[in-house]
Amino acid sequence: MKKVIRDIISLILAASLFTGCSMGNTAGVASEASGSAIRSVVTGSSVMSAEPGTDSETGTTRQAGGKYANDHNKYAMERGGGALFQGKLDTESDEYDKSIEIEIDSLEWVANEWIYYTVYVDNAYWEGEELWRMPIEKTKKGDKVRKDKKEKLITKDEISVVYATDSYLIMVIGDKEGRDLCKYNLNSGKQKELIGNKELGDYGYVLDDDSGNPHVVNGDLVIEGERDLYRLDPETGESAALCPLDSEGVWGQRQSGSILYLLMNESLYSYDGTSRRVAPFIRKKTLEEAVEKLGKGKIWDIDVSDLYVDGGRVYLVMDTERLEPSREDTPYRKEYYNKTELFSLPEDDPEQLCREDKLIDYLDRKGIYEEGDSDDPREGDYCVYYHTESIEDVRDGMVYACYQTENYKEYHYVKYDTRTQKIQKCSWEESAAGEQGRGVAG
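Now predict its structure.
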């Protein structure tokens, strides 16, 4: 069920942030503006650029650029399309100094030499997407996007570029027969199926980070298929199934060097890119036992909603659910409570699981329980309460958290130093800085 919910959310976000219906054919029309910094509601703008390797056949970089940035600039599409923004890597996430007006509905990939994007087509004969690219020209004044030299590459019902080098693209391509993961040769214009629709399914995808950049683990991509987890060597096209997946699929992942941590099959697993093997890192039963030891009531269920890797530790954000007998002054048989817990464990010793007591106890005191919405499926015999605390991010030795006071009217942000255990107030901007650096803008 989570897999379906995740994909529905992804579609909603894609509709509101990454695409937008074209209001007419504006390709090649208008001009490029430059000079003062441009701040706008944009999509994209990740400042991550993948570490290059060597293509064994062509000698080109193993991965060229990234989803929204190359080695020199970051790019972002104006929400709703119609313009592409270009900015320097060392500027604020929403700051751009050039604007290129062009028909664009999705920014797909930014390499050092090319920008790849799609245009949505809907006419009386066909509905789908066209994949285009524009060259980036080096000038004395910096990089210049040459929209006058744009090229159309392919036309399909669905096109999504998930990885690129100077010589080929890895794409999810969909048509009436289904969705396939394909390799498109930029020199010959030929494409080859790598993982077919039977394995990929309707919702399969290449696992990526918060910026949309794929996780490249020792040169391999990791793919969530319909029923199995796969690895793929994009150079050779060789793929292999790693392990089966339950109906929830993969609902969270973080990379730490050659290790990719995966939330799947009701537990936390690790994929070792060196051995190319998947193994349990910590099982759900172990987490349930740790929460039970807190002595805060009978646990109904726990759900690891997110994870972070920082400073050699894995941080697990858990939604804990417990039931308690109802108080005498209420008509309910039982009361249901949902609150956030934060546990962490060393990457090299998963047996040493511990709760971040000082931070969570602080949030427990500062935040409050609010009665849940009336459409909650547990209501009726149960009274439902949700605590207002949340974990926003973990980075650079700091945990950023939030709690709300009565009636959700006020948001309070704090940062917790994992080394000194000191808690300080901070702004939303500081707590969200990591997100901005991972491609969230606008």
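The CA atoms of residues 64 and 166 lie 6 Å apart.
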